[in-house]
């Protein structure tokens, strides 16, 4: 069936709340990066929706590039093992880089990514993540732009998946335990 409402416990963040928050983050980013050419690095696949909305909201000259890494596969637990599935097309030497992520869960993906991108000689690397789970974080990271701190529930929608499903939901919702248990 195409109706997935039975797979959700509740909507956590509505489409309207997401867009209001992205506009707020965009205003801060514009102020902080005024006069600079920013390279937005989206982390596939979860960040596609945030990237599409944030990039269009920003009144700044930006370019976009993408990296595909994976630490989850189809499990609900982070493995901590990060694989590069697709590398950037751009050189980072001297660039002003802003990583765009949908969620920081354990922080393991981002921790690895920050180390990897910083080793390429950029002028700066900062992070914009729509969601963060403070109770799940295993590595403390300095994240400049965070949309929402959320409880340690399995969330889906707006790019976030469970076993590659639900990315196209407009809201962010809590996945019902019966789906994954
Ligand atoms: C998810 C999410 C983040 C990462 C966060 O990606 O999009 O990139 O996990 O988890 P962590 O903080 O515990 O490392 P995933 O590996 O599921 O790939 P996807 O973006 O293709 O869904
Ligand atoms: Mn991801
Ligand atoms: Mg995923």
From TrEMBL:
Pathways per UniProt: Purine metabolism; GMP biosynthesis via salvage pathway; GMP from guanine: step 1/1; Purine metabolism; IMP biosynthesis via salvage pathway; IMP from hypoxanthine: step 1/1
One function term, GO molecular function aspect: nucleotide binding
UniProt keyword annotations, A-Z: Cytoplasm, Glycosyltransferase, Magnesium, Metal-binding, Nucleotide-binding, Purine salvage, Transferase
Single GO cellular component term: cytosol
Superkingdom: Bacteria
Annotated ranges, domain Phosphoribosyltransferase: 17-162
Gene3D superfamilies on file: 3.40.50.2020
CDD domains the UniProt entry points to: PRTases_typeI
Keyword Kinase among record annotations: no
Known EC number: 2.4.2.8
Enzyme class: transferase
Listed cofactors: Mg(2+)
Places the protein is found: Cytoplasm
Keyword check for Cytoplasm: yes
Reaction catalyzed: GMP + diphosphate = guanine + 5-phospho-alpha-D-ribose 1-diphosphate; IMP + diphosphate = hypoxanthine + 5-phospho-alpha-D-ribose 1-diphosphate
GO biological process, one term: IMP salvage
Parts forming coiled coils: none
Family: Belongs to the purine/pyrimidine phosphoribosyltransferase family.
Protein name: Hypoxanthine phosphoribosyltransferase
Lineage, broadest ranks: Bacteria, Bacillati, Actinomycetota, Actinomycetes, Micrococcales
């Amino acid at each position: 069936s195409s109706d997935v409402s039975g797979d959700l416990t509740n909507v956590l963040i509505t489409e309207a709340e997401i867009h209001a928050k992205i506009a707020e983050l965009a205003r801060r980013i514009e102020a902080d990066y005024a006069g600079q050419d920013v390279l937005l690095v989206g982390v596939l696949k979860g960040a596609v929706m945030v990237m599409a909305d944030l990039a269009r909201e920003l009144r700044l000259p930006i370019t976009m590039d993408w990296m595909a890494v994976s630490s989850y596969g189809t499990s609900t637990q982070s493995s901590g093992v990060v694989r590069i599935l697709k590398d950037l097309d751009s050189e980072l030497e001297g660039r002003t880089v802003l990583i765009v992520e949908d969620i920081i869960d354990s922080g393991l993906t981002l921790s690895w990514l920050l180390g990897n991108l910083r080793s390429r000689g950029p002028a700066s690397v900062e992070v914009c993540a729509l969601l963060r789970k403070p109770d799940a974080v295993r590595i403390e990271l300095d994240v400049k732009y965070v949309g929402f701190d959320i409880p340690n529930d399995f969330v889906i929608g707006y790019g976030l998946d469970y076993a590659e499903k639900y990315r196209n939901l407009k809201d962010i919702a809590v996945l019902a335990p019966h789906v994954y248990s």
